[in-house]
Amino acid sequence: MVRGKTELKRIENATSRQVTFSKRRSGLLKKAFELSVLCDAEVALIVFSPKGKLYEFSSSSTHKTIERYQKNEKSLGRLNRKLNDQLTTEHLKEEAATMTRKLEFLEDSKRNLLGHGLEASTLDEIQQVEEQLETSLSKIRARKNLLFTEQIAQLKEEGKNLMKENADLRKRCEMLPFTLTTVPQEEKDPERQIMEVETELIIGLPETRKRSLLTLL
Q1: Cβ atoms of 212 and 200 closer than 8 Å
Q2: Which of 67, 121, 158, 212 has its CA 20 to 30 A from that of 173?
Q3: What is the C-alpha to C-alpha distance for residues 144 and 132, in angstroms, rounded to an integer?
Q4: Which residues are paired to 45 by β-bridges?
């Protein structure tokens, strides 16, 4: 009769769990002892019970085995880091080679699009270049039309704003009162003002004119 597989999960009953722990612990310690004797292996086993009680087995010394394990772990860590560095370097080299191939392909495509290096190209390759040029031209025209449409819309909006400002200025001008300012007669005819300066005419000999001027002063 075939024995069914036991599902591995936590035993809920505390008594059954303690009994199972004792049995399995004893069997595990026995297997560790047998492994160390039969195979001349250095074995160290540490088990803590659910209540924190320590059970251990060591073929030589637990502390020595742990120190040996730690040294070996450091060596393995350095080895793993070295392997990781090598893998990283190889990965970077592969990426660099891939990028170099892509750049070469792009340079060739650029020369072909400019019409250079087509002498050795086949008919299919020339047709591919032609299709690429047509696609690029279609995209350029679409972008150009979009920019023109945006600029036209912007100019229309600016025109509306200017018309609105013009209408506002006209309304303000119509609301201002119309006044006439009169200019004084003197300001209108400055030549007349100059002509009205008081003058005195004296006729006679120079000496007589001189005396008359002194008398007036």
Answers
A1: no
A2: 158
A3: 18
A4: 57
